[in-house]
Structure to design on (341 residues):
């Protein structure tokens, strides 16, 4: 029973992957390219920046970079909260 | 926990730390001209810190200064973004004004000048500070709270 | 000259599959972590061949250096061998 469920899940997954691979677009031709030429033309005019990637990251799509920095900050907060120094709490073990 | 690896490892790590860190700082400072930027350069500098920690152990107490450096970078980034609120957030108000990082770029292909970019350059530096401090702090905390570097405890030794 | 890039892509992707299988098959966890680092380095080489140098630098720094270091710190707090309790 478990083996047949596993084989069924495998077949469904492979079918989805084959459909996705058949429908895949050609390399270098994304579905939405309305803003590409605007970025390439105007990054030296708007930002005085040679690197179009830096212009997109820090000016046109700056909110996304702010979210990425916030994710890193919350990751560090989680690590500090998990790995903080534990105080030894006295429990009533010897009374039992 | 503190440990120290053998002399070969510590010597090679001490030699290699400075070029890796300088390459990372180069990636941060030239983020508006060449591939790379704040995140990539910060990750390279943090990998040099990882080399130092693996060779010498989690030395010293660096929680306070690393977390203050990280908070400084993030606050600087948000303030630089908020100063442009006269137009929109993340408006590049320094580009082309002739002040800090405000030289004009000749349009088309050019060799690249370091004094350009406006807020893009400053935001690269701010994000670089934040990423260096964040990744180094994660590595340092995990090395401080983990066991010794004695990796040779095989299964037979543990069972005895 | 185009076929050189095709052969390079094929070699890099085949060795990526080999290192990814090695990560799963190793019983020694340190060897598995280092295979993961090698796989990440090959992935950054593939990004560079696809002309995305930004992503290649980020992948090489984070995937090959920092993740391996964090895995080694985690392994040395626990057991080195897989399947021991």
């Amino acid at each position: 029973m478990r083996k047949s469920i596993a084989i069924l899940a495998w077949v469904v997954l492979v079918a989805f992957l084959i459909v996705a691979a058949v429908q895949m677009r050609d390399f270098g031709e994304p579905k939405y390219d309305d803003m590409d030429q605007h970025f390439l033309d105007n990054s030296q005019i708007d930002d005085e920046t040679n690197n179009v990637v830096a212009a997109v990251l820090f000016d046109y799509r700056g909110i996304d970079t702010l979210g990425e920095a916030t994710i890193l900050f919350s990751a560090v907060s989680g690590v500090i909260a998990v790995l903080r120094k534990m105080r030894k709490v006295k429990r009533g073990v010897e009374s039992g | 926990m503190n440990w120290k690896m053998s002399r070969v490892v510590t010597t090679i790590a001490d030699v290699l730390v400075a070029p890796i860190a300088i390459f990372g700082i180069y990636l941060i400072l030239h983020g508006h001209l060449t591939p790379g930027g704040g995140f990539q350069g910060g990750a390279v500098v943090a990998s040099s810190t990882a080399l130092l920690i693996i060779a010498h152990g989690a030395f010293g107490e660096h929680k306070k200064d690393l977390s203050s450096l990280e908070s400084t970078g993030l606050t600087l980034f948000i303030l630089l973004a908020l100063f442009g609120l006269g137009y929109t957030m993340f408006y590049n108000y320094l580009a082309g004004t002739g002040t800090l990082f405000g030289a004009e770029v000749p349009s088309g292909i050019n060799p690249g000048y370091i004094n350009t970019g406006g807020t893009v350059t400053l935001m690269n530096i701010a994000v670089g500070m934040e990423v260096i401090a964040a990744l180094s702090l994660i590595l340092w905390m995990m090395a401080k709270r983990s066991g010794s570097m004695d990796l040779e405890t095989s299964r037979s030794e543990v069972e005895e | 000259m185009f076929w050189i890039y095709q052969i390079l892509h094929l070699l890099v992707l085949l060795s990526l599959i080999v290192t990814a299988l090695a990560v799963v098959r190793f019983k020694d966890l340190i060897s598995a972590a280092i295979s993961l680092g090698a796989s990440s380095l090959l992935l950054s080489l593939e990004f560079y061949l696809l002309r995305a140098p930004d992503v290649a630098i980020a992948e090489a720094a984070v995937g090959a250096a920092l993740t391996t270091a964090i895995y080694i710190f985690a392994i040395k707090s626990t057991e080195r061998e897989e399947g021991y309790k």
